[in-house]
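EI: anyone free to look at a 220-residue chain?
SC: sure, send it
EI:
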Amino acid sequence: MLSGDRRDPFLYTGFMYKILLMGPQGSGKGTQAERLSADLGIPAFGMGQLIREEITRGSKHGKNLERIIMRGDLISDTEAADLLKRRLSSQDTQHGYILDGYPRNIEQYNAFDFDQPTHVLVIDIPREESLRRLSGRLTCDGCNKIGIMSRTLQPGDPCGCGGVWRQRKDDEPSAINNRLTIYEEETAPVIARYEKDGLVHHVDGVGDPGQVSERIRGAL
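SC: here you go
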C-alpha cells in the first residue's frame, strides 16, 4: 500500500468487495458505509444519493426523475436498476463498491440481475432501538448528514456545510413504525434469498459505531 493510504490493511487485501449493506431504519447503515468506504478504498452510495446526483447533473434522465419526485411518486424499480447499472459502470467501482439499502424488495432484487454481490451485511437492531434512535435523529437540509438530537444539537441549529439541522416528518413514531413494518414485510424476503446463496452476514448493530465497525470487520 502507498504511503498515506488510509485503507485498512486488515481488510484491504486486493479482494474485490461488492457489499450490500442492509438493515432496518436507524441501524446506522450510512455511518458504517462511510467507514467501510474509507477502510476499503471503494465508493459507497445509496439509491437516494444516485437520484439526487442525477437530478443535480441536469441530464434528460435527471429532469425526468425530478418530475416524478416533485409529483410525490416513487421511481420505478426498472428506473432504479438502470440508474444503478450506469453507476456501476463508472471507473471508481471497478475495484468494488458498497451499496447502502438496496435492493429493498423482491422486484428490485429481480431487477438487480446485472451484478452479484460478494457480501450482504445485515445490521440487526431491535424495533425499540430503531424507534429510540430515529425519534432523536436530525438531518441537515444541505448535505443530508445525520445527527442525533442532544444538548448541543437541536432542530434549527446551523450545520458546518451552511445548511440547517431539521427533524424529518417521517421520523415521527407512527411513520417510523410503518417503515419498520415495510422492512419486515418487503426487505426480509430479499435477505432470505441472499441467505440461500450463502452471502449474508448478520451483525449486531447495538452499541456505538466503533463497536459495530469491529463486528463488521470480523464478518469480512
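EI: The first helix runs from residue 29 to 40.
SC: 👍
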